[in-house]
Design a protein that fits this description.
The protein is of the alpha/beta class and about 300 residues long. Helices cover about 25% and strands about 30% of the residues. Strands 1, 2, 5, 6, 7, 8 and 19 form a seven-stranded mixed beta sheet that branches. A five-stranded parallel beta sheet has the order 10-17-11-12-13, with helices on one face. The structure holds NADP nicotinamide-adenine-dinucleotide phosphate.
Length: about 300
């Protein structure tokens, strides 16, 4: 079994940053990533709030730069999902892609996946009109009518993206106030092919082989109506994937991992960084900051374990 100072789980901004900081501190590092480095960056069209890029930077470009930064560093890479972590500080064992690895510390940077609405037939219509990624699937709806559900930055940003492709975009939100950023909201209000349907929830998906429409319900009046659409993009937040971690690891009510300000979890030797962590702000910069802090805290522990 290969032994490492640190096992970094996840190759998004938090994991890449943690891995490169640890490698530059001469720690031996294994980075396990399910697919390819970049995480949610690969599902983001353009980042307008990434410091140093006043004209914005494409998500895939930043992901490429992150990946390039790992080249030449002493970091082992393994593609695959980690399905278990057991042990204690100085002596953890993890399974990734059917192989077992030993690590003195674990840095959980595995992010979060899109939360489904939980409607009947949502799974069956996935890829047949229902999508969680406008960048991946938006082009299938060129010139058509789509709906976006959610009131956070993802919904607002993706509604703007889809408005450039689709003929008509309905933004459906369950309240009359948005939690997303004002700049996106102002832009949406000035986009002629976007209509906002507020205080509205989706109660039913229609269509057999493909989505044909939505039953909408106004939460104030209880009135229902049918909205014909070709596509539905769901942006109702994220849910963390922490099933592979010890059950006694402290999580918040939504399942995100609770850490202190040094990214230490309730289990000594396990650190968490990025979107998997219970916190207010989920951005590329905060994920990278978490990753750097987690690496520094892990390094201090590794020194104590020597
Ligand atoms: P989010 O901020 O958690 O927003 C989720 C939205 O979905 C909320 O408006 C929520 O409504 C709504 N919602 C939740 N469950 C629902 C349900 N069952 N039915 C209908 N609506 C439901 O998620 P997010 O927009 O994906 O953003 C996640 C994080 O990433 C945030 O920190 C965000 O700022 C960040 N982000 C940043 C950018 C950027 O800066 N460019 C872009 C994307 C994401 P309520 O408001 O009523 O709770």
């Amino acid at each position: 079994m290969n032994q490492y100072d640190a096992l970094v789980i996840g190759g998004g901004p938090a994991g890449v940053t943690a891995a490169l900081y640890l490698a530059r501190s001469a720690c031996s590092v294994l980075l396990c990533e399910q697919l390819t480095p970049g995480g949610q960056l690969l599902m983001t069209d353009c980042l307008e709030n990434y410091p140093g890029h006043p004209k914005g930077i494409k998500g895939y470009e930043l992901a490429d730069l992150f990946a390039a930064h790992l080249e030449g560093l002493n970091i082992d890479r393994q593609t695959g999902a980690v399905d278990s972590v057991v042990g204690a500080a100085g002596n953890f064992a993890a399974r990734c892609d059917g192989r077992e690895y030993g690590a003195k510390t674990i840095l959980v940077c595995s992010g979060a996946r899109r939360r489904p609405l939980g409607l009947d037939r949502e799974d069956a219509l996935l890829g047949r009109g229902v999508s969680y990624c406008a960048l991946c699937d938006g082009n299938f709806f060129r010139g058509q009518t789509v709906a976006v559900v959610g009131g956070g930055n993802s919904a607002l940003e993706e509604a703007l993206y889809l408005a450039k492709i689709a003929a008509k975009v309905y933004l459906i939100h369950r309240r009359d106030a948005f939690r997303g950023t004002r700049v996106f909201l102002d832009r949406l209000r000035q986009t002629p092919n976007v209509s906002m349907l507020l205080d509205t929830v989706i109660s039913r998906l229609h269509g057999e082989s493909g989505l044909t429409g939505l039953t909408l319900k106004n939460v104030r009046t209880e009135e229902e109506r049918l909205l014909p659409v070709d596509g539905l993009f769901v942006y109702v937040g994220f849910e963390p994937a922490t099933h592979f971690l010890p059950p006694d690891l402290n999580r918040d009510a939504q399942g995100f991992i609770v850490t202190d300000t040094e990214m230490r979890t309730s289990i000594p030797g396990i650190f968490a960084a990025g979107d998997i962590r219970s916190k207010l702000c989920r951005q590329v910069v905060t994920a990278a900051g978490d990753g750097a802090t987690a690496a520094q805290a892990a390094f201090i522990l590794l020194e104590q374990l020597r």
